[in-house]
Each structure stands twice: as C-alpha cells, then as structure tokens.
Amino acid sequence: MAGISFSLPETVIVTGASSGLGKSLCRLLAANGADTIGVDIAKAPPDLAEVKGYSHIAGDVAGEAVWAEVTAEVKKRNPKSLGLTTSAAVLDVGVVPDFSKELIQKTFNVNVIGTALAIKAVLPLMFDRGGGRIVAIASIDATFAEQQLAVYAASKAAVRQLARTVAMDHARQGIRVNVLSPGPMLAGLFERHMKSAANPEKFLATRAARQPNGSILDPDDVARAAMFLLSSGSEALNGADVIADGGLTTSFDFRTGAEGASV
Questions:
Q1: 129-141 as b/e, with b when 16 or more CB fall inside 10 Å?
Q2: pTM (2 d.p.)
Q3: What region does 252 belong to: left with phi over 0, alpha with psi -120 to 50, or beta?
Q4: Most buried residue, 2, 23, 160, 197, by CB count within 10 Å?
Q5: What is the mean pLDDT of residues 209-238?
C-alpha cells in the first residue's frame, strides 16, 4: 500500500488536554512518538495519564503561573523542535442579555487570554530553536454566526486574528502559526450545547442531518487535521484558517431530500 509520512515536533504542548479535541490530540500525538505535554485546569483523565509519552501540567491557562511551569519543563527536556496547540476553551449558551460581565470575562479569559499567554510563553522557546509550529484552535463560529453563541463566537474570532497576526509578526523567525476551525464534534463543547437544548436527541439528529455526510464529526478526525498542521507536511501554510467541519459551511444549505428537492 502506498503511504506518506511527515515529521512532528519532538515536543508538543497541548492546552485543553483533559477533554474533547485536546484529549484526542494528546493521545494521537503520543501514539505517533511526540513527547506531549498536556495543560488543563483539570487533572489528566486516567486513560490519558497512562499513555506512554504523555505528561500533564494542571493549571489555569489564563494565569501566568502555569506557563512558568510549562517553560521550566520544556527547558529541562530541551527538545530540538517544539509545537503548540491551543485547544482550551469554554462555551456558555445564551443570548447576550443572559450574560453577566463575569461570564463574558470567563469566556475571554480562557479562550483569548489563555491562547495569548500560551503563545507568549512558547515563542521565546521556539526562537531559541530557530522556529516552531503553532496551531490555534478557533471555530467555524469565528467566521459564521450561530444563534445563542455570540460571546463564544466573538472570542473565537479574536483567537483567529490573534493567531494570523502572530504568524506575520514572526514569519522571518521561523514561526508558522495556523488556525484550525472545527465544526460540531462529538466532544465537550458541542455536547454541552446539545444538553442545553429542550430535546437533546432531536437537537443531535437535526444537526447531524445538516452535515453533508449525515453525522457529527469524530474529534479524532479533527485532531488528525491539527497533527497535519503541526507536521512538516504543512510547510507551505502560514496564517491559514483550515476549516474542519465535514463540509458544513461549504454551501449555504445542504439538501437531504426530506424537503422534496431532487438531490
């Protein structure tokens, strides 16, 4: 069978490691030989903690203390190459009048400030190595509006432009920064949105029917897209926004046949 292979950074830091996309990515990175450091406010789940090649640092990504710890750990390991994926995120469902100032600040603290502090901490380590690869996890909601997710969407739009600007600021220093914008995944944030619905089963079925392939994405498939952006195979990409949504936003609508149209 024909095949292709790309190299990954020797060490990769992943935020939001304890659940969802971050957890899937950590498991796949470690399985493919990357020394993986997960960062999350929660402890490592038992099934991830036991994975060979994985280590965990518990702390708030929106606080500087955890990044001092991550920096010290990377310096101790002294890898030849370094990658970062920022997948830590929170999502609260509601229209803007439902949100207190504190709730808005919580979303931006984790999603935006947490991403900025991660990049701020890791860039000097990458400069020392002649470059590095960063994947910032945004969302299709960074570009497309979704009802009841205004605050989340605004935070992800900020992540998108933060990452793209960093890509230009540091391109001549060997830094490649790309954005990965997932659609709905059967993982933490989408599941939280689904559970907020009056009828979660109907919500899931309706959302799955909108997908061209008829199902919600598996987070492992999105994690593989992140691995590609971290790898040598994506050398031609810098500042790109890769939309990993199974084709959901390719068209303004997807006809299933239920509406009586020919398909």
A1: bebbbbbbbbbbb
A2: 0.93
A3: alpha
A4: 23
A5: 95
